[in-house]
Amino acid sequence: MSENSRGGMLVRAIETCIKPDDAALAGLGTLFTDDVTAWSPNLLAVGLDDLARNLASREATFSDVGIDVTSVGIIGNKGFAEFQVVATFSGPFVINDTVALEPNGRQLLLGAAVIADFTGDKISSIRAYFDDATLLEQMLSEKV
What we know:
Structural class: alpha+beta
Helix content: 25-40%
Number of strands: 8
């Protein structure tokens, strides 16, 4: 697989994980291996089914989502990307069975970086890094 196609796959994976609509969730297997591991400050998924479940639970949390991927690099079997996300906090953010943050209607801004490992032509591991304290601060601020 060429670096360009891996770079494109990494961008699609970022978009899928941030904007997980039904079509994107149905196509997870075209991007990720069955035993994929995914990690971010507020997500841990082991396996494709676990990733799909985690992403589906967040589908209604944000609306008006915009993603700006500012850089992508591929070195061997590793991919790197930096991006910004703008989204409206419009649905509950479920933390666990008893805790959820209620939406405040505010537009959130988040800068992030991702590192991915490729096995063959799919992503076998993906890790996202961002400032979750700043995200929570925006989610907990006064309603508009």
